[in-house]
Amino acid sequence: MRVDPAAGTQLVNTTSAVPAVMRGRPMAGWLRVPSEDLTADTELARWVSLSVGYARSLPPK
Fold first, then answer.
1. Would you list the domain boundaries of the chain?
2. Average pLDDT over residues 25-42
3. CA nearest 8: which of 36, 35, 34, 27?
4. CA–CA separation, 31 vs 33, rounded Å?
5. Which of its termini does the chain have fewer beta carbons within 10 Å around, N or C?
6. Which residues is 32 bridged to in the sheet?
């Protein structure tokens, strides 16, 4: 999932999320959340809200 890079470190430190690694490099603002932590609708909604909120803050392409 994509989140605000400024919030990414805090999320990694306070949740089970880990930085996403693409082509061998950790990507700032991209996280992987274990699927077992998304089984409750409230948890899934929380992560989706974080990601969608960040995506909406970006300028249109």
1. 5-57
2. 93
3. 27
4. 6
5. C
6. 18
